[in-house]
Structures are given as structure tokens and as C-alpha cells.
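Look over this entry.
=====
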Amino acid sequence: MDNEYKQNTLRHWYLGEYESNGEKRPMAFGQFFNRTGFYEGMNGHTSIVQSVTINHEEKEFEIQTKNTLYHCPFDSCFFERQDDSPYKLPEYEGIKAEYYKSIDTQGLSKNDMLLVVADYCEYYFEKLIYQNPDGSEGDFSGYPHIGTYTDTYLIEGSHDYYKEHSQNIDIRYYVNNGGFEFYSLGTGERNLWIENRGDSVLDIYGCGSPIELKPGKRILALKNDKSK
């Protein structure tokens, strides 16, 4: 073991739902550490969850499957995904209030857009934050395209909202091992900021000079001259 994690630790985890043959079952999703048969930081899910207990002394949830006990730290819960899960955790609201770290949007204007990425998310995409011209929260959809040689990820804004083509949001990138490369950067004439919420450095290409974005850092990746 060459890290500080216990055997069978899950990070950036949540208790979610898996459907098979029309039957829905609870499983834990996240990154595996010190788990036999998994490389470190591998994204995946457990087998069917049998029970969930809380260990205040260790500051973790203990999730039991048929054959394995997983250690799930409070401070590494993927709270945004857990909020949407039909399965509830014991004492969840109190733990979220203490450990959840929201994305800092202070200082972002209508002329800015924040792309939140992380190694614990499939295709690195976690969230896109921006404002509509009227100040309301911008909507988006994100989805992968599975390619023969490499996968891509596509992020689009609500086309119904905008009447001017120049305001359309169309962001696309190739998914690489350890990062991604943009091949479309339609930000609706907004500046593009990128924040890395994960645990690993991400290498980002396609928006000028190559970017080596360290965990917890935010960078102005694209400055749009038309944004005022």
C-alpha cells in the first residue's frame, strides 16, 4: 500500500442505483483505492449493498456488500450525486452541512463561464456554470460520444433560450488518458474558466497554450474579446 487510504476505500463516492433486468438495486459508486483487482483511483461501482453504517470515530460510512466492507470518508462523499439518489444515508444532512464544499462562484459575471472537471467523473466532466442574459442560471446537457479510436464529450446549452446563433453554447473535447483536448469552444461569447476539483493533475489542450491544471486550481483558459 503506497497511500494513506485503508483497504477497500472509496473516494468521491455516493450510494446510487443500478438497474438490471428491470430491477433496481443499491450500489456504491466512486473511485477505488487499495482494492484487489482494481487499479488505484479506478472509477466503478460495488456489488449490491447489504447495509450502511456510520462510524463517527473514523469519520466515515461503512458500506457492506456480500463479501467486502468499504470505507467511505465523510469528506469525500460526492454530495451532488448523493442528493439525487433515491437511497438515503444515516445522518446525511448533518454530515453534508459540515463537510460539503460548494463551488465558489463569487467573482463570476454574466460574461464568464466555469467548466468544473475532475478525475473522479466519467469523461472528467462535473458541471458547467454560467448565467443567462437575464441573470438566471444557465442550463446545459452533457453526453459522451463513443468513438472507434477515442471518445469525445459534448456539452450544449439550451438552444431554445437563445435567438442569436452567436450565443449558443457548444463545447466538445477528445478524452485522453490524464486529460482532454478541446475541438470546439463555443462559449456564447463568454470567458471560459476551468476548475479542477479532482485529486490528479489534468492536461488540457485546444485553448491556446497547453494547461497543466493542478487539483483545487482554477484558470482562465479562454478570454473572449467580445465579452464586455
User: Anything to note?
Assistant: Residues 9-99 form one domain. Residues 64 and 150 are 36 Å apart (CA to CA). The chain has a mean pLDDT of 91.
